[in-house]
Specification:
Layout lengths: L21 H31 L12 H17 L12 E4 L6 H9 L10 E6 L4 E8 L3 E13 L2 E12 L4 E4 L6
Antiparallel strand pairs: 1-2, 2-3, 3-4, 4-5, 5-6
Helix pairs in contact: 1-2
Length: 184
């Protein structure tokens, strides 16, 4: 379960601007609720970031079930706050930096990089909703990369299914293709 923190955008489009109508009063009340929700979401996001900031992308959490549980609870709290949001639209298309994960294969690669006399650099996920692609990238400075290509399918307003299509481990003057493995 890798997380990407999405910005919360709550549009407000009043249907009636007559301040004497009961509908207009309801709309103003909704605006206050939206502000509270936005404030609550920002607070939840700050809380989550404070929990994961020293966890080395999840490596420390592997050995600390209590901390992992706290983080998962914070993620679940954010999910409740965003339950009515569309998170699979065009705003999903971006390059996302991994901050924390429980995904064992990624954590294994990050942890074992020193065995190959390197270290894991950025761990990125590049999503393009329009072209239905998702690429996972783990960099190994100065010139190495583990690159996994995937196709995606929007399953719901908050769910994207993926299927790996290819994988390659590259160094400065070499490339080693790997069989793609996995879907979700």
């Amino acid at each position: 379960m890798a997380i990407a923190l999405l910005p919360h955008h709550i549009p407000f489009n009043p249907q009636n601007t007559n301040s004497n109508s009961s509908q207009s009063k309801y709309r103003r009340s909704s605006t206050i609720t939206c502000s509270a929700t936005t404030s609550e979401a920002l607070s939840a996001k700050r809380h989550l970031l404070s929990l994961i900031c020293d966890q080395e992308r999840g490596l420390k959490t592997l050995r600390d079930p209590k901390k992992r549980s706290e983080i998962v609870e914070a993620i679940d709290a954010m999910a409740v706050l965003g339950q009515d949001m569309v998170t699979t639209g065009d705003s999903l298309s971006a390059t996302w930096r991994l901050l924390w994960t429980t995904e064992k294969e990624q954590l294994f690669i990050i942890e074992k990089a020193p065995v190959f006399r390197t270290r894991a650099g950025d761990v990125l996920q590049v999503i393009d909703v329009e072209n239905r692609t998702l690429n996972n990238v783990i960099t190994f400075p100065p010139s190495g990369v583990f690159f996994v290509r995937s196709t995606i399918e929007i399953a719901s307003s908050q769910r994207v299914n993926f299927r790996f299509t290819s994988a390659v481990l590259r160094g400065k003057d070499w490339e080693f293709p790997l069989p793609p493995y996995g879907q979700g």
